[in-house]
Each structure stands twice: as structure tokens, then as C-alpha cells.
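QUALITY CONTROL LOG
STEP: pairwise intake check
CHECKER ROLE: data steward
CRITERIA: each record must contain a sequence immediately followed by its C-alpha cells, with no blank fields

ENTRY 1 OF 2
RESULT FIELD BELOW
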Amino acid sequence: MEDIARVAGVSRATVSLVVRQSPLVAEHTRMMVERVMADLDYVRDIGAARLRNNSSRTVGVIVPNLVNSFFTEFLTGVEQVMRAQDRVVLLANSEDDPHRQDEILQRFRGHGVDGVILCPAAGTDAALPARMQRWGLPMVQALREVGAQQTDYAGADYVAGVGLALQHLSDLGHRRIAFLSVRAMTSAKAERLEGFSSGLSRTGAIDAGIVEADLTWEGAALAADEVLALPSRPTAVLCFNDVLAAGLMLGLRRADRQPGRDIAVVGLDDLPLAELTYPPMSSVAMRPAVIGAEAAQLLTTRLAEPGRQIERFLQAPALMVRESSGKKIV
């Protein structure tokens, strides 16, 4: 900073204000100092800043897998907010393993992260939020939740989302509707099953069976035979997410069944791949980038006001109709 101040012809205090993105610096001065910083290849000493402010300016984010691009979009939303807060995001993949998740959390503690955004692995101990409170490590849960609303939470309203999908299929004339799910039980799965049950009751449709598959395209493709073998002979399948829906559609085509013509398929999340499948996939949009941004904002607020009341954010769903759900049955 001394070097930058000397070259730029300003005080060290002015350089410090520019580094901290203070609005007190005139625009022409800020641009000149930033140009000198770039010429001198300056990098802020985060370690020194941490000693001064008792903050590492880093946050940890843990997701259960990187197969589903939902989490990529979610992370984009997190980083947008944290970048504006001059914080660095440390990303880790728990592989949906609570033991690996614990190891990551301990490493995050060792690195002195200011807080954590966690999508809990399947089987996470419900006591984890209380443990993290004892550690003094603020946490926001996202997309999944353990414990009885002990932390801030950002997620999607999957109960309502599944209801939208079932209403759409019912309006098309489908009465025997199956559900293709992941195997692991989490709050996200419980919410979808709740939405499936309540949606069937509201529309008068019949539960044509629940089939479980591995969270991979090939796992879902292999589940197509099991779906087609259901004794109820479903005319439509609602899927846990777009990854399973895309895999199922592949499996159906392998079985010489055309999605949208021989059997309707609807996904959840409305990822970019929904428009790239054949045929294009009907899905329920949940806008993961928005959820990520809200999770990051909740953590930022929690860091600034540790004693504030717990807050929750649920992203409202929106139905996106494409060819995979087919035409109205006559």
C-alpha cells in the first residue's frame, strides 16, 4: 500500500479506502489508484485484514453433488452476492456423505471461514445446527434442511411446484400418474412426496406408483423399464428433478416409447437442459440462482446481526410447458 500511495501520489489512507471500495473516494482518484494497483500487480493481504477485522472474508458452501447443474446455478447466485460483499466463496462437494461433510466443516473451521451455506447431505444428524452454534460458526441451510428450523433457510416451494405439475397433467386428462424419485430420504424428497400426495387428492388423479433411481442419467434411463412395468400402467410420470426426467426420457426411447406421445414426462427445476432434451421437457422452474443469492444474503445479514430472528425464503414455482407432457387426452 505504501508503494501504491507513493506511485499514485496519494495518501496510504486513500489507497486503503480504494481497496475497501469505499464510496468516499472520488471516481477519478479511484480509477488512478486502481490503475497503479494493476500495474504493480497488487494483491490484498487477506491474512492481515483478518487480524485487523477478525474476519477472513471467506464463506464455505457445501453441496451434495456436482452431477446436477442446479447446484452450479445455485453457486452463481451465491457468488454474485458474496463478490459484492468482497468475500471469497470456498466450494466443497460432500458427495451426499455426512461423514465427508463433517470433515469439510472441520476444514472450513480450520480455515476460519466467517460462515457456511450448507445443503445437508442425506443422513445428516439433526443436531448439526446446534453443534455449529456451539462452534460459533453461522450457517444458512439451503434446498434441504435438518433440525427444527434452527437456522436461516433458503429453498424452493416444492410442495407447490409438484402441485403445479400434477394440475397440468390432470388438465391434460391424465389420471394414472407415477413419480420417479431419488433413493435418499431428505427434506427435499419429503416435500416432493407431500406435494405428490396432496396434488393427487386435489386433482382426483391416482397414484400409479413411486419408482426410485440413482441420481444419474443412466440410473434414470434404467428405471424406465420399471416405470413401464408398473401394474397401474401410468400415462404420465412426474420426476424428482430434470436430471431424472432427462434420463427417463432416454430410457423410454430405448424401450420404443416416445415421451410426450406414448407417455407424458414432467421434470422439476427447469434447468437449461430442459430445452435440449428430445422432445423439449416440460418442467417447473425454481430459479436456483435466485435461491443461491437469497441464501448468501441471509448469511451476510446473519454475520452483520447475529442476534436477529431466523428467516426463511421459499422460491415460488412457475410451470414451463413444452412437448414432453404431450397434448390433451381426448
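ENTRY 2 OF 2
RESULT FIELD BELOW
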Amino acid sequence: MSHSQPARNESAWLRPMVARPADEQHRTATMLELFFDLCFVTAVAQAATAFEHELAEGRIGHGVLGYAMVFFAIWWAWMNFTWFASAYDTDDVPYRLLTLLQITGALVLAAGATEAVQHEDFTVITCGYVIMRLAMVAQWLRAARADPERRRSCLRYAVGILVVQAGWVVRLALPESSGLATFAVLVVAEIAVPVWAERAATTTWHPHHIAERYGLFTLIVLGESITAATGAVRASLDTHAALGDLAAIVVGGILTVFALWWLYFAQSAPRRLTTLRVALLWGYGHYFVFASAAAVGAGLALNVAHATGHGHLSDHAAASVYTVPVALFVILVWLLHHPTPVRIDAADVVHPVAVAAILAATFAPSPVLVTGILAALLIAAKLTFSARGATKASP
């Protein structure tokens, strides 16, 4: 067995954290990674619920901003763990303990999500976030010790993360008036750390493993949307709402979520992840994919409540908080997985046309149902073009 592939003895307490091969065969997500995702969805659910509350109260701008800020903390901590694990997962006792510490931080973050979104109080959420990130510092220091070839890169990660975490803690003591500006500066700093670190030496992330991990989190976020919508329908029925009044929303929501799932997994992400630049753009772009997928559930739940006479939004405003995240998901999945340069043919035009139609559905009599039908038609169009392409390619 090569030096880069340490022996996987289940009883081992400590293994050298050497780089795993980027072309390792049969690389799949581990049970610990799945557990990690499952716990993180708690934070996603809390953020989406708080977002839905703000929308229902008519504070759309405030809700969108708070949700975007909280979701960044969730996504960035998840993403950093995912790419690190792809390169350095040893599955030994220290690795597991540090990962469980990150999960603890995620649960603390989830506990503070409501206060952050609704009242701009980021104290608890910052504590949870810093716990997660400091655990990553320890992981990178382990990797730096065991992987001389990429030591500079690992140390850059550790130092960069540590410095930015100090910034998040200091931010809590600053005046409220500087909250948004300091948040933006620290977000830029967080995003810059991997770019700076990878210039020293590229870590050995595994394209198929990364694609699988992102796909699994997409499943979890879409599942959370279904859960949120189901809860809203149940709550409406408990108040003696007629099922017929909700039928169009339920059918439209189901069609939409099914279509978003189909659209995402019709792509071949590993083929795109061939260079660091593409991988960074693809990985960073998923912030909007994940956030919009979770927001679909909040928008669907809000429209259920709106249909039963609850909420403070106009018909068009209620529709827009559903159609906009759906349109954002559709266009981003297409852009992130589309080969470059962009070809101009019927198969390429169908996505922008679908997005325009979904946004126009905001003004339809039954916007959720129309959106679901349009999303289903998009999938049908993709299948048709794919079949035609296969026919032309065959001898």
C-alpha cells in the first residue's frame, strides 16, 4: 500500500494525516459525513423557518438579508469541512472528535439562527460558527504536520481561518451601525483564504467525492423544503382550511421540487471539476443553489398560509418569494454545470426561457401551480433535446 493511502484499520486510534489520492478508486461519502450533513440540516431548517416568519410579517428585505447572512455561516462551514475531508479524511479518533466538535458548533449555530434573522443578534450564531472554524484550524495543523509537500498550503489555511475568526469575535463588540459592512469584509476574507492557501500547493480533493457530497447536501436541502411545506399544509388543515383550496399549491410544490431534483442530478459535475479555478467557482456558486433550494420551502409554506388568509403580503409579493428562488436555482444549476464557451442553440436557450417564464408566473392566478408546470416542462424539454442529440450522435 502506498504512503499516500494509509492503512484503514478500524481499531486504529491515530493515523498520519497524509493526503488521499485525487484519483482514489471507489471513493464515497462516509457515515460520519452523512451524520455531519444530517446535523447541519437542523441549522438550515432553523434559518428557513426564521426567514419564513419574516416574510409572513411583510419584512421581505430584512428577512432576505438576515437569511443570506445566516446561510453563509452554515454553507461556508459545511463547504470547508467537505473539501478538507475529501483531501485528508483519516477517520481516526482525533479526526472524529474534531468533526463531532464541528457538529456541536452547528447545533449552537442553529440555536441562534432565529435571533440572527429576526432580531440581528449574531452572538449565539457567531459562537457556534467560531467553534466549527477553530476545529478546522486543528485539522489543518494536523495535515500540515503529516504532509510536508503541502505544508505551506495547510498552514495558510490554519492561519487564515484563525485570523478571520478573531475578526468575527471582534465584530460582536463593534457598534450595530458597522454590522453589515464588517460582515461583508469578513465574508470576503473567508472566501479569500482558500484562494490564497491553494496557491502554495493544491490539496488533493477528489472530484467524484466532492460531486457526491454536494449532491447529498442538495438532497437534504430539497428534503427540508418538502418538510417545511408539509408542516404548513398540516397546520392549515388543522385550522379547518379546505384541502381543495390548497390543492393547486400542493400539486405545484410537488412538481417543482421533483423537477429541481431532476434538473440538478441530470448534470455531470465531476466532468466540470478539472481545474482549481473551475472547482472554486463551482463550489462557491453552490451557496446560491443551496440557499435558493432552502428558500423554496419557505416560500411554499408562506403561500400555503397566504391561501388560507394568513400573512401580510400582497398576492404578487407572496408569489415572488416562491418564484424567485425557483428561478435562481434553475439558472444557477445550468450555469454552474454548463460547458464553456456557451453554445447558442435550442438546448441552451431553454433554460433562460424557462427562468423568464417562471418569473412571469408571479403574476399568474395560481403562481405555485404554474411554476410547477413550467419546471416539469423544462425537464421534458431537456429530455427531448437529449434524445435528439443521442439520435444524431448514433451512426
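INTAKE CHECK: passed for both entries
DESCRIPTIVE NOTE, ENTRY 2: The chain has 13 helices and no strands.
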